[in-house]
Specification:
Blueprint (H helix, E strand, L loop, with lengths): L1 H7 L10 H28 L4 H18 L6 E3 L2 H11 L8 H23 L11 H24 L6 H13 L3 H23 L5 H15 L28 H28 L10 H17 L6 E3 H9 L6 H17 L8 H13 L4 H10 L1 H16 L5 H20 L3 E6 L5 E3 H4 L8 E6 L8 H14 L5 E5 L8 H16 L3 E5 L3 H9 L2 H5 L4 E2 L2 H10 L1 H4 L1
Helix pairs in contact: 2-3, 2-9, 2-12, 2-13, 2-14, 3-11, 3-13, 4-10, 5-10, 5-11, 6-14, 6-15, 6-16, 6-17, 8-9, 8-14, 15-16, 16-17
């Protein structure tokens, strides 16, 4: 019964808070909350949503995510990558910040959350591992570049739907620089400079908050909006009213589902990367299925709050750890900051320049661009390097349909995976002076004994690999008519399917008719069980089953004179 309670209400396992730990969590939570508020507004604009929905996404979803998740320090809320995926998914379907856009974003959050919740509830978190690190590397680097390019116009005050229009606008501004554009440049580039200096010289300070406060003060003091500057505008005060969203057409639901799957998988891998690197101060082990449940419920809560999909934030989680958080209580204090802001301080945010928001997005996203990651993949595995580059290029080409980039990388990774499985290492073994079996061709070794062919397959015996081994043996039988024993060193065979068992059984029958023994060494239990089930274990007999290679060498060398 207790296990069910732990699974349904995992926060009941939190350690009892003490005064000292609560003080640390309060400080950490308030620090993260002060960073979260401007980031939430910035990521809402990145997702094409009204700014206030960023605060909605930072309130209840962060509480639900920490209560039902498994990581005590993972900060849940709006993040850049998930916001970009939301924008990319909805861009072909509606106008940003319109009522229809908001409804679509809500349904997208509900679908992505439901997918994650079901994966976690049915303990299918391993499915997230199907998106390889190479695919994630390629996609995140491409997505980061797309985010940067999307924020450049707001950062330096350019308008236009394409590059040529933006370039024409830049030429006009350079020819006749108006006050609003000069202020926009000052806000955008100045914010980036301040954030860089804060990170380098005062990493403990909430630099995002400082930049926003300065930006709001200067904007209000010099009437930046009246000059024609682009600001956030009036943000309504008050709490979100949870409600079911308006209905969509069947075609709109269908259009959202592929994007929901991509967001569910990509956002979870992003959260998973953060959770794995964050130690749980209370000693609990991180559980990917429980985290899927927490992340899924957080997305569903965000949708019901009128917001967009959320995820685990690496930067805010790292800040949480850096400033001394000890438990999930820090996330509750961060949510309290958002609550206070929604109730009392939204009026101050209307003067916040959008150029400052662009800088808040750009600075952390710069850390996601890692060209060295591609070089590392190529050095480790050429296949993974190709997958990462292909995913990167496909994602850039597919804009705004970013899911095609992930799908391209996933399919290419599967092709390489199947190719490697279809071409396993299959070698003939010879006896070295130390009495062990090694690659005979590579090391120029003699066979175990005259008339003995010993081989090793470094893969499971399946419908893919069984024909290769069968052909290898039969080709050797044609070339060497004096073979009397075929020894399969099966220590590397971890599994066997029906095709593998049938192939081995048929091979035994054919060899038996020709007076040739089939022997196996180092057979693992799961393989022995399959052989016993089809009766091959009994037909082979104990004389042809060896516990290990050493036993097989001794037995076959002892019988060598009789075979000669």
């Amino acid at each position: 019964m207790k296990s069910w309670i732990r699974r349904l209400l995992p926060f009941t396992q939190w350690p009892r808070p003490r005064a000292q730990s609560l003080r640390k969590d309060a400080f950490a939570g308030i620090t993260v909350g002060l960073v979260l508020i401007p980031q939430a507004i910035a990521y809402a604009t990145l997702a094409g949503m009204p700014p206030v929905t960023g605060l909605y996404a930072a309130l209840l979803p962060s509480v639900v995510g920490i209560l039902w998740g498994s990581s005590a320090l993972l900060a849940v809320g709006p993040v850049a990558l998930t916001s970009l995926l939301t924008y990319a998914a909805l861009h072909p379907l509606a106008e940003p910040e319109s009522g229809q856009w908001v409804v679509l974003a809500i349904w997208l959050a509900l679908y992505a959350g439901l997918i994650q919740f079901l994966l976690g509830a049915f303990r299918l978190g391993v499915i997230a591992n199907f998106i390889s690190n190479a695919v994630i590397t390629g996609f995140i680097n491409a997505a980061a570049l797309i985010i940067l390019l999307s924020q450049v116009p707001a950062l330096i005050g350019l308008e236009g739907q394409n590059f040529s229009a933006a370039l024409a606008g830049l030429q006009r501004h350079l020819a006749d620089a108006d006050a609003a554009w000069l202020w926009t440049l000052a806000f955008g580039l100045g914010s980036i400079a301040l954030l860089w200096l804060q990170k380098r010289f005062a990493p403990r300070l909430p630099g995002v908050l400082v930049v926003c406060v300065v930006g709001i003060a200067v904007s209000a003091l010099f009437s930046y909006q009246a000059l024609g500057g682009n600001v956030v505008g009036l943000i309504p005060a008050g709490l979100p009213a949870p409600q079911w969203p308006p209905s969509l057409t069947l075609e709109q639901h269908r259009a959202l589902l592929p994007a929901a799957v991509i967001i569910a998988l990509i956002s979870f891998t992003e959260a998973m990367a953060s959770a794995r690197t964050l130690p749980n101060p209370d000693g609990r082990l991180w559980n990917q299925n429980q985290e899927l449940v927490g992340q899924g419920l957080a997305k569903i809560t965000s949708g019901l709050s009128g917001a967009f999909p959320v995820s685990g934030s690496f930067s805010r989680s790292a800040l949480n750890l850096y400033v001394g958080a000890t438990s999930g209580w820090s996330a509750l204090f961060a949510a309290l900051c958002t609550l206070v802001c929604l109730l009392f301080f939204t009026g101050y945010l209307q003067h916040l320049p959008r150029a400052v928001l662009a800088a808040i997005i750009i600075v952390p996203v710069l850390n996601l661009i890692q060209p060295k990651a591609f070089l590392h993949l190529f050095r480790t595995s050429r296949d993974d390097g190709v997958v990462a580059v292909a995913t990167f290029i496909a994602t850039l080409i597919a804009v705004p349909y970013l899911h095609w980039g992930v799908l391209t990388g996933f399919l290419l990774a599967m092709v390489f995976f199947l190719y490697r499985r279809a071409h396993p290492r299959l070698i003939e073994l010879g006896l070295d002076p130390a009495g062990t079996l090694r690659d005979r061709t590579l090391n120029g070794l003699p066979p175990i004994a005259p008339g003995v062919l010993s081989l090793r397959l470094d893969a499971s015996l399946t419908y893919i690999t069984a024909p290769l081994m069968d052909r290898f043996i039969r080709e050797r039988l044609q070339k060497e008519t004096d073979l009397r024993v075929i020894l399969i060193c099966a220590s590397a065979v971890n599994d066997m399917d029906a095709t593998g068992a049938d192939t081995l059984s048929q091979l035994h029958q054919d060899l038996q008719r020709r007076g040739i023994r089939l022997a196996l060494s180092g057979v693992k239990k799961q393989v022995r069980d399959r052989l016993a089930h089809i009766g091959l274990l009994q037909r082979l007999g104990d004389d042809n089953l060896f516990v290990n290679n050493r036993e097989a060498i001794v037995a076959l060398k002892a019988k060598a004179p009789e075979q000669d």
